[in-house]
Design goal:
The protein has 3 helices and no strands. The chain is mainly alpha-helical.
């Protein structure tokens, strides 16, 4: 891009007539040069940065993983609730048996 600006600047300077249009073109060339110099980064990192945007396929994959994980957590919660209920029933039955055995002594 810098080469094109230099060639354009030389062409403008080579013009025989120094009109207002040429002066405006020269000013535009100088502004363009300043803009390209300011856009150059002052410091470049030595490591690669991760991509900032995810593709549609990645988002669909994430959504599917969240859904499968949610269903898994729901089944695990249901299993724990059933296990807790069965455990409570077993404890109550064993306590009743223990009391009956203590009374029979």
């Amino acid at each position: 891009m810098s080469d094109a600006l230099d060639k354009a600047e030389q062409a403008v300077r080579a013009a025989e007539t120094d009109t207002a249009a040429v002066q405006l073109a020269m000013a535009a060339m100088e502004l363009a040069k300043l803009a390209t110099q300011q856009q150059a980064p002052a410091h470049r990192c030595q490591h690669d940065h991760p991509r900032a945007r995810r593709s549609t396929g990645e988002w669909i994959g994430i959504a599917c993983a969240v859904c499968v994980g949610g269903v898994g957590i729901a089944f695990a919660s249901l299993a724990l609730a059933i296990l807790g209920g069965v455990g409570a029933i077993v404890v109550l039955v064993l306590r009743d048996l223990w009391r009956d055995m203590q009374k029979g002594k």
